[in-house]
Amino acid sequence: MIDREQQVLDRIERARRRPAKVREERITLSHGSGGKATHTLIEAVFLDAFGNPALAPLEDAARLRIGDARLALTTDSYVVSPLFFPGGDIGDLAVNGTVNDLAVSGATPLYLTCGFILEEGFPIADLTRIAASMRAAADRAGVMIVTGDTKVVQRGKADGCYVNTAGVGVVEGSAELGVAAVQPGDAILVSGPIGEHGVTIMLARGELDIEADLVSDTAPLNGLVAELLASTSGVHAMRDATRGGVATILNEIATDAQVSVIVDEHAIPVKAEVRGASELLGIDPLYVACEGRLVAAVAGDQVDAALAAMRAHPLGTQAAVIGRVEADQPGMVLLNTAFGGTRIVDMLVGDPLPRIC
Amino acid sequence: MRFVDEFRDADKARALASKIAGLCEPGRRYKFMEVCGGHTHTIYKHGLEDYLPEQVQLVHGPGCPVCVIPMGRVDDAIHIARRPEVIMTSFGDMMRVPGSGGNFFDSNAEGTTIRMVYSPLDSLKLARQNPDKQVVFMAIGFETTAPSTAMTLLRAAAEGLDNFSVFCNHVTIIPAIKAILDSPDLRLDGFIGPGHVSTVIGCRPYEFIAGSYGKPVVVAGFEPLDILQSIYMLMVQLHEGRSEVENQYSRVVPWQGNPVALKVINQTMQLRPYFEWRGLGFISHSALRVRDDYASFDAEARFEVPGVRVADPKACQCGEVLKGVLKPWECKVFGTACTPETPIGTCMVSPEGACAAYYNFGRFSRKRVQEVTIG
């Protein structure tokens, strides 16, 4: 009987490796959740249309060689609701998010662009506040916002204010960071407690009548990344854990590098407030967005140096080793539960948290 | 974290597991059904089966509120939601349940407004905020959620809201258990009784299972140690040749249930003569509708509802899975044509559905994993 089950499991894994197909005829909210549906959409629509070697790795930023210079380029749009929340607003989120996408691809972020889509009737005072927090975030990250665009649409055609940022950075050193470089024997680290941004936003919407002393973790990670890369040459890949959370990144690692990732639930840092809210809401912190946390895969013999470097940085004091990479059962993320059992951690399906960033 | 970690203690789990193993008689197999989808979710989420000896098998039951909703009811809901004046609300799990022409997300992409709410009372708020709209709450669930629908109806009546109604799909657990007991396909040794339902109906209604059918029942909580302890209690009963209803979840479930909750259900809802269950077919006296006294809050009275019966897709074996006859992976379309992102059957939709729980959490070879994680 076990054999029959194994045959079914093998058949499922083969089915999962087939190219993604979009079955829906229209966009649904799931396509924006950062989970499986988003991946399918990107692969089936955008990768199909734009396909080129710079895009193909689907990292957080594209790495480009122009003459002797190596650049990293990225863009991100922000539609978070509410616009202002404990610990931040759409403005610093838009700066930090793009800075982080550059940083985790191994680049030093330099310049950002910004585009605003504003709804008729949006208060100028709010816009001023958002712009000020973007400036403050840019100063903190050591980048400049050097060009931008403004569009206004009729009332009812947008929800107040959407922000797009793009960023360019320079890649120094020769290390080819990327999920494809992850190998069996690597350790998996996170730079701090997970899920604070996502839970903060859910509570800030005021729909749940739950109160908790939580603020968003939105922060620029380029400083921490610089310290980490200076401390060791063993870093193989980094991703910032935004939509889809840490679980999605672990799945990307397992799938793209054809390895398995074994995670220890005990070791994952989660604040009690995040755990409590997640338990009440029936969500798993592993899938909840962060906006100032990264996941890194580091060569097993370099893990002490990497952990020490992260912990020495103010944004990484609670960094932890949460798992390891294995060769057996490629494509799978397995969790040793705190209870002492084992389970799979899959990509996020569905849409528990719309418009988190 | 207090009140959580105590119930997930691995040392206590190991101790219970060895007591369970000690009660296994050589050559005998034990098959217990956890009725409630919440239990199924806990079992897979914490990897509880790793603690069970091979002789003890868990079979997943019908107690997943979303899983038992037939396609026709989803179509009916979308039909109501297509009226331009309607804002429909329901619980998040409902959003991805497939109807014959797509789910609520697909329907919204085509122009309806179906919103997710955390409490039916949020629908009243929506009704007050949108006096020119008709807010329809699609109520689903067993006796666990029926009291909150009942309270919402009472409050709507007290406020005299004329733009709120309930599309009632509440079902009752006992007829479903009886249908399973009467099904010839399945031989069970006992039941892990539904914890949340029992907070409302109490433990008495299960006495016929222990009495007439001779199967022990242990009403269980939702933490992994609760379930492991319940399995131990079932094993003890079998070992001692007893067949009784016991309450492991006594910290929450009173033996008599919650008389106030039962009263408000009774006040606002009445039994339907019959109702269609996904996979199980028509079961008499197994569901609730809005009582005639509250007919002005009954969406089925207020709007035209086609009530078309839609046959389950041929390939779908949800019925067998809901009855515990098939393990999720034994279904023909499991994991290939039917996945959480493209569910054919409802068991693949809700996190409480047996197929979704198995696919999301348990889709691996335990043997190989034990070699890797322990080795």
First and last CA, distance of chain A? 46 Å
Q: State the low-pLDDT regions of chain B, or none.
A: none
CATH architecture of the domain at 13-66 and 174-247 in chain B: 3-Layer(aba) Sandwich
CATH H-level superfamily title of the domain at 13-66 and 174-247 in chain B: HypD, alpha/beta domain 1
What is the name of the CATH superfamily of the largest domain in chain A?
PurM-like C-terminal domain
Count the E strands of chain B: 13
The parts of chain A where pLDDT drops under 50 for at least 5 residues are none
Proportion of β residues of chain B?
A: 15-25%
Query: What structural class results from the helix and strand content of chain B?
Result: alpha/beta
Pfam family, one (chain A): AIRS_C
Family (chain A): Belongs to the HypE family.
GO biological process, one term (chain A): protein maturation
Protein name (chain A): Hydrogenase expression/formation protein HypE
Can you describe what's shown?
The complex is a heterodimer of chains A (357) and B (375). Chain A is α+β, with helices and mostly antiparallel strands. Chain A has 2 domains: 59-171, 2-Layer Sandwich (60s Ribosomal Protein L30, Chain: A); 179-344, Alpha-Beta Complex (Phosphoribosyl-aminoimidazole Synthetase, Chain A, domain 2). Chain A is 32% helix and 24% strand. Chain A has 9 helices and 14 strands. Chain A has helices at residues 2-17, 36-50, 90-104, 124-141, 196-204, 222-231, 245-256, 272-281, 303-312, and strands at residues 62-66, 69-78, 84-85, 88-89, 107-119, 144-153, 161-171, 187-190, 235-240, 260-264, 294-298, 320-326, 333-336, 342-344. In chain A, the strands form 3 sheets. Chain A has a 7-stranded mixed beta sheet with strand order 9-11-8-12-10-13-14. In chain A, helix 3 (90-104) packs parallel to helix 4 (124-141). In chain B, strands 2-1-7-8-9 form a 5-stranded parallel beta sheet. In chain B, strands 4-3-5-6 form a 4-stranded parallel beta sheet, sandwiched between helices. A two-stranded antiparallel sheet of chain B has the order 10-13. Helix content of chain B is 37%, strand content 17%. In chain B, helix 10 (224-239) links the parallel strand 8 (217-219) and strand 9 (245-247). Chain B is built from 15 helices and 13 strands. Chain B is globular, with a radius of gyration of 21 Å. Chain B is an alpha/beta fold. Chain B has a domain at 13-66 and 174-247: Rossmann fold. At the A-B interface, helix 1, helix 2, helix 8, strand 13 and strand 14 of A face helix 1, helix 4, helix 14 and helix 15 of B.
